[in-house]
Amino acid sequence: MAVHNIVVIGASYAGLGTAHYLLRHTIPALEKANTPTKYKLTLISAVTHFYHKVAAPRLLASADLIPLSKAFLPINDGFKDYDQEHFELVIGTATALDEAGKTITVEDTYGSANSRTVTYDTVVVATGSSSESRLWSIPGSHEITIAALKEMQSALPDAKTVLIAGGGPAGTETAGEIASLFPKIDITLLSGADRLLTRLRPALGAAAESQASALGVKVVHNLKVTSTTKKGSQTTVALSNGTSRTVDVYIDATGIRPNSAFLPKTWLTEKGYVITKDTTSLRGPADGVYAIGDVAGYSLGGALDIIDAVRPLCSTMFADLAGQNAGGIKPQPFKQTVTETQLVPVGPKGGVGSVFGWRVPSFVVWMLKSRNYMIGMVPGTVTGDNFVKA
User: Who has the most CB within 10 Å: 182, 241, 324, 367?
Assistant: First the structure.
């Protein structure tokens, strides 16, 4: 009996949602359409635990507000109800993909010299993006990120000076959280641009700066960190204007890079994102290749570019794989939200934001995000609750 191997690489927000949808809806439909072919999904995850990095600004500031145990959940628990005939979880880092042989080399993330080869017929790249700091993404074992968060939680109560590099949501939210908890700390936020939150309209960046300043944060524009030197408990930071500064706590909240180094260069844009042929089907640069989430060329980096893309992606895969047996079912096109949509807490009581181009008041930001950084969504993310229905 023929087995068609579908491999999803990456088990964060995009990979988890895609894997659950394929297992619940697409694979059963394919096996009905293409009898007697069987379909198996292999999920490759570099780590054993899902990390709700959205909550990182509050997690790093205090151990009391959101328990770490609620932000890190075992991935395997979310897939325990699927049978082994249709699903396998492979823990390891994808380090190479052979397009001609349709194989993926997976090396053990946790230090052993063991590696294995996973064969695919269809592959979905959902590897996301990474940051320089261990606070925002898992560089290996999730224990490394937990240790980094705990280190920050321990350092802040005794700190007199904090420097945060990065004027995007992560840096702005972190400044607000720390300032709210530790009002006596001298906190400086370097935007690295001419304003905060450059993906939002200037008025919202100005509003965020006003809220941060009211909490005691000093916001400095057009200044970047060029290098850092750690000595003891302090960090000396070299700045782009030729000066330097020594602080008790330094937090790097600067940009992200796509996790795509293992892929063929012909699959990637100049900036390393996976080429998507169009923004409606999410087909990738070669037959049987698809991409979703932060690593994909279509993505603008927002949550809606994941949530709204899962169903269209899986419907495209069904149409491609079912072919003439699709029964007239056509792919559901992905309709990307291009209007301004982003919520940025500035402390625990509110923040700034826009939803579908409409500016929302601070209390709405509190209600939707600042209140608890959506920590209640974590269990459902791991178990795929958003995709129970087709």
Answer: 182
